Amino acid sequence: MQPAQFAFARYDVRLDSETDFVGWRGAARRLALNEVRPEDINWHVAPGSDTADLPAAPAGAQLTVPRDFITHAETASCHSDPDRFAFLYRMLWRQRIEPKLLAIASDPDTRRLEAMEKAVRRDSHKMHAFVRFRKIGEGSEERYVAWFEPEHFIVERNADFFVRRFTGMRWTILTPYASADWDGERLAIGPGAAKGDAPAEDDTEALWLTYFENIFNPARLKVKAMQKEMPKKYWRNLPEASLIPDLIAGADEAAKDMIARMPTTPAPHHARVQARHWPKREPAEVPDDDASTISELREAAKGCRRCPLWRDATQTVFGEGPDNAKVVFVGEQPGDQEDLAGKPFVGPAGKVFDAILDDAGVDRQKVYVTNAVKHFKFEPRGKRRIHSKPNAGEVQACRWWIGRELDLIKPDLAVALGATAALSLLGKAVPVTKMRGRVIEREDGLRVFITIHPSFILRIHEPADKEAERERFLADMKQVKRLMAA
Q1: How many Cα atoms are found within 13 Å in the side-chain-facing hemisphere of 78?
Q2: Rounded to whole angstroms, how far apart are CA atoms 153 and 175?
Q3: How far apart are CA 67 and CA 65, in angstroms?
Q4: Alpha-carbon gap, residue 57 to 29, rounded angstroms
Q5: Is 479 helix (H, G, I), strand (E, B) or coil?
Q6: Residue 320 DSSP code
Q7: Domain ranges in the chain?
């Protein structure tokens, strides 16, 4: 059979679902190897279809395209553009003779592919941020249901994120085109639903609204930036959105009142949490050098008194992750939410970190995450505890714990998230801006990758600059993924 006989044939390719990338990839390979031009193919979504009527790949034929294209194409295939599968085939067809196509930034198809990817990633980010669960049922019947309206076909792509975040909950996310259901053990993707299928409210909603109203910071309000990050189209499904107009209207007076208040000591619940978590042990009883596993080391760290930070912190926040992880991420120190939860990277910066790792294809469950300093350093301002950067002495005091973590885990790569982490891992100050994206090999052979801390992204006010920095950090994490495989 000669490939040329299919050159002018007309094919209708029917894919099983809107997200059937595997079906598209298999059909596209067979068609391209048989020299079927893009204009000779119609692509459709028709559940239950197969590709049996397509020509088989010629024996011994090879189709070579850049490896990155498959990753780009898989993301873009989730876009809602009805022409996306035909467009991706055209990109595949062109790359047979233009292998550097993706590097040509001025090419219209390359720009379109990048725009589609960016739209899908942004929609995924919004799904992570704006899904709101409501409880239904009690006891063994308890579960949580959310309604979300994505712009693109991203439910399957993001379901694992919610499994990791809410493993202990039974939940369902309903959208117009698909649903994701987690029963505590098994994830199932089902058909779409109507908004009326989701509960309108639950008993905890009043509590959530009270919490949202009280954490609102009028001094940091930037309406345009807020609407950029939380577009109004999402408001109709966010219970807290009903409060936003009044909060904006009263922001000036609220800010003046906040500034007028003098700093106080930490809130009373801090002392209660501290009393519940801190072990009643003297420093001499802490078995620093006896730990032979990460679990034992974590237990020993609960009684750490190596620097004065333990006196005001709620508890030690130790690292988390597999004790045989190939990659260790090192941040600066725990924040307010990490201090109360006892877990690293669960606050706002942690959410940014998780989302970007997910976009980069790095499985958070397979990496170890820790901090250069294990206790929260802060300054009280009103009822809030404001992050204060640890000094060199505090970082040096905590290097013993980092060293023991690395000794026990034996990773292939350590990622320094920011200057404090770099100081801890390398024992010297490093200009992060200058060294970002570089790998430094320590005397013991450990490779250290330098990048920013994700909290830096949160501190950028201009939406365009924030998005650009997020893309740079995403590129760093993709480089980390490549180093993981090296």
Answers
A1: 23
A2: 10
A3: 6
A4: 8
A5: helix
A6: B
A7: 3-124, 131-197, 205-260, 268-485
Structure tokens at 235: 């408001």
Residue pair 416/439 in contact by the 8 Å Cβ criterion: no
Q: What is the pLDDT of residues 18-48, one digit of tens each?
A: 999 999 999 999 999 999 999 999 998 887 6
Q: What is the pLDDT of residues 190-207, one digit of tens each?
A: 999 998 888 877 666 776
The Cα 449–Cα 470 span in angstroms is: 17
Q: What pLDDT sits at residue 240? A: 73
Specify the CATH class of 268-485 in words.
alpha beta
As given in the structure block, the two tokens for residue 371 are 């901090």
- Residue 348: count of CB within 10 angstroms of its CB: 14
- In the chain, the amino acid numbered 171 is W
Nearest to 457 by CA among 325, 382, 373, 359: 359
**Cα 153-157-163 angle, rounded to 5 deg:** 130
Residue given tokens 């204060």 in the structure block: 388
Cα 364 to Cα 355: distance, rounded to the nearest angstrom:
10
Q: Distance between CA 51 and CA 32 in Å, rounded? A: 14
Q: Residue 276's CB: how many other CB atoms inside 10 A?
A: 9
Q: What is the DSSP string of 392-458?
A: HHHHHHHHHHHHHHHHHH--SEEEEESHHHHHHHHSS---HHHHTT-EEE-TTS-EEEEE--THHHH
Which H or E run includes 170? Answer: none
Contact, 189 vs 180, CB < 8 A?
Answer: yes
- Any residues with CB less than 8 A from the CB of 211 and at least 6 apart, and which? none
Q: Is the pTM of this model over 0.70?
A: no
Which residues have a Cβ under 8 Å from the Cβ of 75 and sit 6 or more positions away? 116, 117, 120, 121
| Residue 295 structure tokens | 């679990």
d(CA 361, CA 422): 24
Structure-token pair, residue 476? 């760093």
Q: How far is CA 357 from CA 77, 350, 411, 454, in A?
A: 20, 10, 18, 11
